[in-house]
Task: inverse folding
C-alpha cells in the first residue's frame, strides 16, 4: 500500500540555522501519525513544508502522490491544514468563516449545505452559528478551525499543535474528533508537545533540533527504553534528588511531584542499594518501586544517548 | 493558471464582510470623501481676496484718490490704513498687518498731467510669494488700466490704442471651484483608495490569517482581485457622489459623457487600489504600509497632479516626474469631461495612460504578493 | 517618592528607539521621506506664470503684429508653441490642453493703429486652469496695454511735439524675498507640516501597535508606571522629530539657500512646544483606536484639515469669513507663522511671543488631556 506521505532527507535552513535536518519517514494511509518534540525542534517547519507553505532546501516530499516541491498548489486541494495559532477571521461569524473556506475549496450547492451542517454539528456550534468567531472560547475556536480544514473532505490532514492552550477536557474532545476522522479513513499528521497526547497516536516520530531521533509505535518506544525507572517516595524531595544524583548506577534523578524518579541501569542493584544510601544521609525512604517509563523519559534518554541536549 | 470565479467571489464576499463590520473604514470610504469635497470646495480658493493694503498717499490729489478708488473698486483689496508716515507703513508690513503698501509720491497728479512718468510704488510682503505675486498682478493690472484711461483722456482720444478683449473658455466666471472640485475628486480618491487597501494584506500577515489562506488552493490573482472588488465598488459610488456634489453644491457644469467618466474612473481606481495592495504586500507590516501609502499618494497627487500648481511652470525634473502620477491624467479627464465636454477623441492619450496605470498597479500587486511564507 | 524611575524610563526609550530605527525601511521613512517632501515642495510650488504655452492666430502678419507677439514673449511669461490660421484651431488646441492662452490678431490690426484708430485683439484662455488663467490674463492685458501706449506715443511723436503719454509707472518691490521665490515661503512651511505629521503618526501607531499585538497589556502589569509608559512612548518620538527638524533645516539652508535671519533659540523653543501638540494629538488618537488601521484613519482625518487650514498652501485670509477664526485652533497655523517669521523676517520673541505662548498652551493642554484619557482607558 502506498504511503500517504513520503518524506526523504527533507531539509530546511533559515540562514545558517538548520531547522529541519534530513528528515526521512513515511506516513501510512489512515493512521494518526504524531510528531513529538519540544519547541524549536522543527515540527512546525516540517508541517509547513508538507503543506506547501515553505519550500524545502533539499530533499523530497510526496503528499497524496504529489511532489510538494513542484505541485504544491495541487497538493493543497487534497489536504487540510490547521496552523498553530488560531487563524480564522475573528470579525466573521462562525457560518461566514465556514462559507468562506468552503468557497475556497469550491464546496458548493447541496454538498456545501451538507458539509456545513456536519461541521457545525461536529464542533458543537450549531446553536452558535451566528456568533462572532472572535467571541468564542479557545476550545470552540479550535474545533471550528478543524471543521474548516475538513470541509472538502481531504484524505490527509495536517494539524500543527492544534490543542495548545486548550483545557484538558476540550483536548480530550478534540482527540475524539480526530479519532472519528481517522476512522473514516483520513490520514492525520499531528504535531504536539504534550506527551500524553502522543499516546493517542498510532505511530510517533520524535524530533529534536531538526533531527528525527526515533520513529515507532508509542508502546514500542517505551519498550526501547534501555533503563528502568524507579519512583522513590521520601520526606525531602530536593535533597533526595541531589543525593541520588551522584549515586553509582544512577543515570538520572529528578523530582516528580513530591517523589523522585531515578533512571537506573540495573534494577536489582538499585533496589538493594538506594534505600541505604538515602538513610545514610538522614533521609527517609518510604517506598521504592518500578514505574513504567513515560514518553518524556524515553525522549530525554534518547536525546541523552545521542549526546545532545534537549532543545527549547 | 487555473483561476476559479467561485474562489474569487468567496474572497470578495469575505472582504465585503470585513468592510461592513469596520465602521471606521466605512466612514472613511463614504463619508470622508464627500465631506472633504464639500469642505475644501468652500475653503480652498485660489482667488486672493481681501488683500490688506496700506496706502501712503503723498500727493493727496484728485488723481491719487482716483487711483486708490480704482484699487478698491476691484474688490480684491481692503485698505487697513491710510498713513503718511513711511516708517509706520513699513512696520505694518513687518508685523504682517498688511500685505502690501502702495506709495503714491507727491507730484503724482502733476506728472500725469504733464505727460511725465508718474511713479507709484508697491511694496509687498514677499514672504508669501504666492499671494504676493498674485497681489502684484492684480495691482499691476488695475494701475495699468487706470494709467491707460488717464493718459488717453489727456490726449483727448477716447479710445484706447489697443484693447485686449479677453474671453475665458470653459469656465467663464473663472470660478475656482470649477477647477478645484474635479481635481479634488481625483486627489481624494487616490489617497483614500490607496490607504484603504494598503492595510488589507499586511493585516492578514500580522494576524496570521494569511497562513491559513496560503494553505488553501486559492490563487494569488484571486486573492488580489477578491480584495480589490469591494473597494472598487465603493470607489465608484464615491465618484458618483462627488460628481453629484460638484453639480448640486458647487454648480460645476457637467458637459461630457457619463459613461466615459465611468470607464476612466474604473481604470483609475483599479490602478490606485492595485497600488495600495502592492504596498500592503511589499511591506508586510501595517505600520510601514500605511506610512508608505500616505507618502506615495498624498504628496505626488497633491503637488504634481496639476490640482493646485500648474505643472508647466515646474522645473524639468518635476514635470517628468508628474508623468507617472496617475492623478494627473485623471484630473485632465475630469476637467475635460466636466468643463470641456470633450470625449475620447481628445482624451484618448489619457485613456491609454489610465489603462497603463491599471495594468501596472494590478500587475505590481500580483507580482509582489506571494503565498509562500518565506 | 519619585513619579518616574529614570532607569526604567531610559530602558523604554532605548527599546522604542531601537524598534523605530532597526528596520532599514523604517529608517528611510523617517529620514529620507521628509527630505524628499521638502525637495518636492521646494521646487514644485509656484503659482506664477512663466513660459506659458501660447497659440497665435495672426491674421494681420505685419511688423506691428509681430512686435506685439514679441512683446508678449519677451516678458518671459509666454512662449509661442503653436500657431494657426483659424480660430477653430486655437479652440482645438485649448480642448486638447496644449496651450494655456491664445491670441487672435485680426486682419487690419496695424492699419488701424497706424492710423491712430482703435484696434482690438482677442485673448482666449483655458478657464479650467483657473488660477493660472487669471494670472496669465493679467500679464497679457498689461503687456498689450503697454504696447498700445508705446505705439501711440511713437506715433504722436512723429507728427509733432507730442504730449508724452508716459502714464503711470508701476514699480514693485518684494520685501524679504526680492525674487518672489515661492520656495522661500514653502520650504519653512514644509518643515512644520512634516514634523506634525511624523510625530502624530509615530506616537499613535506605536502605542496602538502594542495594544493590537497584546504587549501593551504586558507593559501595564509590569512595574512600569503609567507616566513612564507615556513618556517612554512620546520622548523617543520627540527625539526623532528633533533629528528630522535638524535634517530638514540643513537641507533648507544649504541646499535651497533659504535665508535664516532669526534666532535658533526661538525656533527650537517653538518647535518644542509644537511637538508637544503633535504628541498630544497622537496620544489621544491612540486612546480611541484599537487597531493600527483605526489609528491611521483617525490620524488622516485630523491631518488633512490641519494642513489645509494652516495657511500652508492656501492663504487664510482668502478663506470664507466664518472659517478664519477657527483656524486659530490649529497649532500648525501658529507654528507656520513662527517658522516663516524666524526664517524670513528675522522676527524674534517680541513679535512671535503670542504664537509661541499659544503653542505652549495647546501643547500642554492636549498632552494633559490625552494622558488622562490614556490612563483611564488603559488601566
Result:
Amino acid at each position: 500500500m502506498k504511503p500517504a506521505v513520503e518524506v526523504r532527507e527533507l531539509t530546511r535552513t533559515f540562514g545558517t540555522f538548520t531547522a529541519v535536518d534530513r528528515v526521512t519517514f513515511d506516513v501510512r494511509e489512515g493512521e494518526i501519525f504524531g510528531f513529538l518534540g519540544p519547541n524549536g525542534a522543527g515540527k512546525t517547519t516540517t508541517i509547513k513544508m508538507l503543506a506547501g507553505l515553505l519550500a524545502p532546501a533539499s530533499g523530497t516530499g510526496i503528499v497524496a502522490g504529489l511532489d510538494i516541491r513542484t505541485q504544491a498548489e495541487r497538493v493543497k486541494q487534497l489536504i487540510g491544514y490547521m496552523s498553530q495559532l488560531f487563524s480564522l477571521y475573528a470579525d466573521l461569524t462562525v457560518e461566514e468563516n465556514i462559507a468562506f473556506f468552503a468557497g475556497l475549496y469550491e464546496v458548493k450547492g447541496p454538498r456545501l449545505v451538507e458539509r456545513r451542517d456536519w461541521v457545525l454539528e461536529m464542533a458543537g456550534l450549531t446553536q452558535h452559528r451566528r456568533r462572532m468567531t472572535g467571541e468564542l472560547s479557545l476550545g470552540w475556536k479550535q474545533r471550528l478551525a478543524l471543521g474548516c480544514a475538513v470541509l472538502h473532505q481531504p484524505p490527509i490532514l495536517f494539524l500543527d499543535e492544534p490543542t495548545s492552550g486548550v483545557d484538558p477536557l476540550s483536548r480530550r474532545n478534540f482527540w475524539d474528533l480526530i479519532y472519528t476522522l481517522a476512522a473514516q479513513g483520513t490520514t492525520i499528521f499531528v504535531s504536539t508537545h504534550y506527551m500524553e497526547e502522543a499516546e493517542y497516536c498510532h505511530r510517533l516520530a520524535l524530533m529534536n533540533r531538526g533531527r528525527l531521533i526515533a520513529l515507532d509505535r508509542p508502546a514500542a518506544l517505551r519498550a526501547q527504553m534501555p533503563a528502568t525507572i524507579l519512583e522513590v517516595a521520601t520526606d525531602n524531595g530536593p535533597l533526595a534528588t541531589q543525593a541520588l544524583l551522584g549515586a553509582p548506577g544512577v543515570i538520572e534523578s529528578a523530582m516528580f511531584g513530591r517523589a523522585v524518579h531515578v533512571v537506573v541501569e540495573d534494577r536489582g542493584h538499585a533496589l538493594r542499594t538506594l534505600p541505604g544510601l538515602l538513610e545514610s544521609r538522614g533521609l527517609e525512604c518510604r517506598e521504592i518501586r518500578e514505574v513504567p517509563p513515560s514518553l518524556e523519559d524515553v525522549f530525554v534518554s534518547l536525546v541523552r544517548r545521542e549526546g545532545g541536549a534537549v532543545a527549547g | 493558471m487555473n483561476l476559479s470565479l467561485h474562489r474569487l467571489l468567496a474572497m470578495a464576499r469575505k472582504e465585503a464582510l470585513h468592510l461592513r463590520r469596520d465602521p471606521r473604514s466605512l466612514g472613511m470610504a463614504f463619508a470622508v470623501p464627500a465631506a472633504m469635497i464639500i469642505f475644501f470646495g468652500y475653503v480652498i480658493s485660489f482667488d486672493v481676496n481681501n488683500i490688506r493694503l496700506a496706502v501712503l498717499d503723498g500727493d493727496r490729489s484728485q488723481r491719487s484718490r482716483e487711483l486708490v478708488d480704482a484699487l478698491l473698486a476691484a474688490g480684491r483689496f481692503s485698505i487697513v490704513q491710510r498713513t503718511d508716515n513711511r516708517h509706520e507703513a513699513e512696520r505694518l508690513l513687518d508685523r504682517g498687518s498688511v500685505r502690501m503698501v502702495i506709495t503714491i509720491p507727491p507730484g503724482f497728479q502733476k506728472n500725469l498731467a504733464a505727460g511725465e512718468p508718474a511713479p507709484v510704488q508697491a511694496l509687498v510682503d514677499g514672504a508669501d510669494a504666492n499671494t504676493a505675486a498674485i497681489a502684484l498682478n492684480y495691482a499691476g493690472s488695475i494701475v495699468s488700466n487706470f494709467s491707460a484711461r488717464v493718459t488717453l483722456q489727456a490726449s483727448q482720444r477716447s479710445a484706447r490704442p489697443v484693447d485686449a478683449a479677453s474671453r475665458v473658455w470653459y469656465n467663464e466666471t473663472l470660478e475656482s471651484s470649477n477647477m478645484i472640485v474635479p481635481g479634488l475628486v481625483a486627489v481624494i480618491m487616490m489617497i483614500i483608495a490607496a490607504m484603504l487597501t494598503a492595510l488589507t494584506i499586511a493585516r492578514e500577515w500580522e494576524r496570521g490569517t494569511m497562513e491559513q489562506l496560503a494553505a488553501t488552493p486559492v490563487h494569488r490573482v484571486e486573492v488580489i482581485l477578491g480584495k480589490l472588488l469591494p473597494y472598487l465598488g465603493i470607489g465608484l459610488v464615491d465618484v458618483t457622489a462627488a460628481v453629484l456634489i460638484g453639480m448640486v453644491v458647487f454648480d460645476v457644469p457637467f458637459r461630457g459623457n457619463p459613461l466615459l467618466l465611468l470607464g476612466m474612473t474604473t481604470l483609475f481606481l483599479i490602478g490606485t487600489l492595485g497600488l495600495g495592495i502592492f504596498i500592503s504586500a511589499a511591506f508586510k507590516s501595517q505600520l510601514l504600509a500605511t506610512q508608505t501609502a500616505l507618502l506615495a499618494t498624498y504628496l505626488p497627487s497633491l503637488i504634481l497632479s496639476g490640482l493646485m500648481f500648474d505643472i508647466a511652470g515646474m522645473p524639468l525634473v518635476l514635470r517628468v516626474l508628474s508623468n507617472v502620477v496617475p492623478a494627473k491624467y485623471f484630473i485632465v479627464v475630469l476637467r475635460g469631461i466636466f468643463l470641456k465636454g470633450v470625449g475620447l477623441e481628445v482624451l484618448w492619450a489619457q485613456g491609454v495612460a489610465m489603462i497603463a496605470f491599471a495594468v501596472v498597479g494590478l500587475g505590481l500587486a500580483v507580482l509582489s504578493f506571494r503565498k509562500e511564507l518565506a | 517618592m519619585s513619579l518616574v524611575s529614570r532607569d526604567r524610563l531610559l530602558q523604554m526609550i532605548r527599546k522604542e528607539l531601537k524598534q523605530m530605527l532597526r528596520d532599514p525601511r523604517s529608517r528611510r521613512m523617517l529620514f529620507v521621506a521628509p527630505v524628499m517632501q521638502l525637495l518636492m515642495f521646494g521646487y514644485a510650488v509656484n503659482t506664477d506664470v512663466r513660459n506659458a504655452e501660447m497659440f497665435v492666430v495672426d491674421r494681420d502678419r505685419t511688423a506691428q503684429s509681430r512686435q506685439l507677439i514679441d512683446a508678449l514673449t519677451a516678458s518671459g511669461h509666454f512662449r509661442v508653441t503653436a500657431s494657426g490660421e483659424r480660430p477653430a484651431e486655437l479652440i482645438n488646441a485649448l480642448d486638447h490642453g496644449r496651450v494655456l492662452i491664445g491670441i487672435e490678431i485680426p486682419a487690419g490690426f496695424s492699419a488701424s493703429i497706424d492710423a491712430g484708430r482703435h484696434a482690438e485683439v482677442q485673448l482666449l484662455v483655458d478657464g479650467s486652469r483657473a488660477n493660472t488663467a487669471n494670472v496669465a490674463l493679467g500679464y497679457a492685458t498689461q503687456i498689450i496695454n503697454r504696447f498700445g501706449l508705446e505705439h501711440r506715443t511713437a506715433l504722436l511723436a512723429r507728427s509733432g511735439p507730442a504730449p508724452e503719454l508716459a502714464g503711470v509707472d508701476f514699480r514693485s518691490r518684494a520685501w524679504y524675498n526680492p525674487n518672489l521665490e515661492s520656495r522661500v515661503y514653502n520650504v519653512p512651511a514644509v518643515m512644520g507640516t512634516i514634523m506634525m505629521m511624523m510625530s502624530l503618526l509615530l506616537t499613535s501607531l506605536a502605542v496602538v501597535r502594542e495594544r493590537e499585538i497584546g504587549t501593551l497589556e504586558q507593559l501595564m502589569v509590569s512595574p512600569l508606571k503609567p507616566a513612564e509608559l507615556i513618556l517612554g512612548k512620546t520622548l523617543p518620538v520627540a527625539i526623532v522629530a528633533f533629528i528630522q527638524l535638524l535634517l530638514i533645516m540643513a537641507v533648507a539652508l544649504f541646499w535651497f539657500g533659504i535665508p535664516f535671519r532669526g534666532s535658533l533659540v526661538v525656533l527650537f523653543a517653538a518647535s518644542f512646544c509644537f511637538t508637544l501638540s503633535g504628541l498630544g494629538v497622537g496620544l489621544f488618537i491612540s486612546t480611541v483606536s484599537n487597531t493600527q488601521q483605526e489609528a491611521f484613519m483617525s490620524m488622516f482625518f485630523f491631518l488633512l484639515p490641519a494642513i489645509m487650514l494652516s495657511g500652508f498652501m492656501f492663504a487664510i485670509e482668502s478663506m470664507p469669513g466664518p472659517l478664519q477664526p477657527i483656524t486659530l485652533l490649529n497649532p500648525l497655523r501658529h507654528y507656520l507663522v513662527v517658522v516663516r517669521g524666524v526664517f524670513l523676517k528675522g522676527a524674534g520673541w517680541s513679535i512671535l511671543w503670542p504664537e509661541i505662548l499659544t503653542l505652549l498652551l495647546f501643547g500642554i493642554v492636549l498632552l494633559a488631556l490625552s494622558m488622562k484619557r490614556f490612563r483611564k482607558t488603559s488601566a
In short: The first helix of chain B runs from residue 5 to 20. Residues 51-154 of chain B form a domain with the abc type-2 transporter like fold fold (CATH 3.40.1710.10).
